[in-house]
Design a protein that fits this description.
This protein is of the alpha/beta class. The chain folds into 2 domains: 3-29 and 278-416, Lyase, Ornithine Decarboxylase, Chain A, domain 1; 31-276, Alpha-Beta Barrel (TIM Barrel). The protein contains 12 helices and 19 strands. It has helices spanning 3-15, 31-44, 61-69, 79-87, 104-112, 122-134, 173-182, 200-221, 245-257, 273-276, 308-312, 410-416; strands at residues 25-30, 49-54, 73-76, 95-97, 116-119, 141-146, 168-169, 186-190, 228-230, 266-271, 280-285, 288-292, 295-299, 321-324, 337-342, 351-358, 366-369, 390-394, 402-405. The protein has an 8-stranded parallel β-barrel with strand order 2-3-4-5-6-8-9-10, surrounded by 5 helices. α5 (104-112) crosses α6 (122-134) and α7 (173-182) packs across α8. The longest helix has 22 residues, at 200-221. Bound molecules: pyridoxal-5'-phosphate.
Length: 418
């Protein structure tokens, strides 16, 4: 985000009553930025690729509707997310349903709604097979495969180690061959390695292992038996300075290293972070400035409630911060003082930054937090029961703002816990 654009949006929010004492924090969604990412994706990987966007990264209904109206599908990680996808107008065949804990009822509903199902384990497969005897799935069913490529650099979001709770190990070849031999509605293999902690080359290594498995299945069950693949999400986003190159680099490597992908009937993707991260940004007024010895702290209105991962795992996750003054002009004095930016929750480690070099901060300044469009407010924590701030959407910086989600009121919080 250019600093002038941030300034224009903050002014527009303030003029419309969305930033001030009653609204001390605001989250913005830049639709144009998101659609640039989506177009890049479609251009880099056209047919046979079918792109879905991970709802868990950003479940705001207005955002999902915009994704769907641009012709993209949605990846759901729970039946609740399937319901969100349907509410956003996504047809069943555009919804990919992942979850390691689907109940029999969840599976029945997914089949009834014609959703694409990724089966996580053998017991789930058996339940689905029972349902399929009465009502065969109309959309292709996939088996989720663990590519066993190790934990990557962020163990908490990796799902590809040998002790992962997800999927069939890629080495379970005879079992998987039998499932394909016996069930014609089983069409594809799904792989998701993890989120953010893998380089493109590692992700591609995982896809290669799944393509080798496909060859082994085809060898046993007939050429082309595995007609569909789903290569999941997980592309790493550069939180220091995003330029969007990662999508193009990824597509280039797929073309170079995995030509077979392009001959398949259909290849699904399930990206979340690289589609949404840079489209979102947040702003909070500085409520208090404190000094203890030489330690300066600015207290703001967003902490671990909105930024669970950065607050609890600051070595794995962080966001760029900027300081704007009370008139929404970026402060330009040198970043020469160590500042801590503290959140509003009642525990000791609730910080967005610790002793980081920043410009001098004053009460009523605005701290801008960049690249918050994925896995921040979508993971909102109820610790201390603070309400979620308003989420505003815009097409053009400084232009009209749409309320995508209202600020939660005191009554909403009472209702939530009732
Ligand atoms: C199965 C699955 N697919 C897709 C994604 C999206 O990953 P990312 O947002 O890193 O692209 C996730 C994220 O956890 C996931 O679990």
């Amino acid at each position: 985000m250019k600093r002038d654009d941030v300034s224009r949006c903050l002014k527009a929010a303030s003029e419309n009553g969305f930033l001030g004492h009653e609204f001390p924090a605001v989250i913005f969604h830049d639709f144009r930025n998101m659609h640039e990412r989506l177009s890049l994706l479609r251009k880099a990987l056209p047919d046979p690729f079918r792109h879905t966007v991970a709802i868990k990264a950003n479940p705001v209904l207005g955002v999902l509707k915009s994704v769907v109206s641009a012709g993209f599908g949605l990846e759901a990680a729970s039946l609740e997310e399937v319901a969100l996808a349907r509410a956003a107008g996504c047809p069943g065949k555009g919804i990919v349903y992942n979850s390691p804990a689907k109940t029999s009822q969840d599976l029945r509903m997914a089949v009834e709604w014609g959703v694409v199902i990724n089966v996580d384990n053998l017991q789930e497969f058996e339940r689905l097979a029972e349902i399929a005897e009465k009502q065969a799935p109309v959309e292709p069913v996939f088996l989720r495969v663990n590519p066993l490529v190790g934990k990557g650099s962020i163990s908490t979001t990796s799902v590809a180690s040998s002790d992962s709770k997800f999927g069939f190990p890629v080495t379970d070849v005879p079992l998987i061959q039998n499932l394909f031999r016996d069930h014609s509605w089983l069409k594809g293999l799904h792989v998701h390695t993890g989120s953010q902690g893998y380089k493109i080359v590692d992700l591609v290594g995982g896809y290669r292992r799944v393509l080798d498995l496909k060859l082994a299945i085809d060898g046993a069950c007939g050429q082309g038996r595995v007609s569909h693949l789903n290569i999941g999400g997980g592309l790493p986003f550069n939180y220091r300075n995003e330029d969007g190159a990662v999508i193009a680099d990824w597509a280039k490597m797929l073309r170079l290293e995995l030509k077979e992908l392009f001959g398949l009937e259909c290849v699904y993707t399930e990206l979340g972070r690289v589609v949404h991260a840079s489209a979102g940004w947040a702003a909070s007024r500085v409520e208090y400035v404190k000094q203890t010895g030489d330690h300066k702290t600015a207290v703001v209105h967003l902490g671990a409630d909105c930024f669970l991962r950065p607050v609890y795992r600051p070595n794995d996750w962080s966001h760029r911060l900027d300081v704007f003054d009370a008139d929404f002009v970026q402060k330009k004095s040198p970043e020469s003082e160590p500042w801590s930016i503290a959140g509003p929750l009642c525990f000791g480690e609730d910080y967005l930054a610790r002793r980081s070099p920043m410009t001098t901060i004053a009460e009523n300044d605005v701290i801008v937090i960049h690249d918050v469009g994925a896995y921040t407010f979508s993971m909102w924590s109820r610790h201390c029961s603070r309400g979620m701030p308003v989420i505003l959407g815009y097409e053009e910086a400084g232009g009209p703002l749409t309320v995508l989600k209202k600020k939660e009121t005191l009554e909403d919080i009472v209702q939530f816990w009732s």
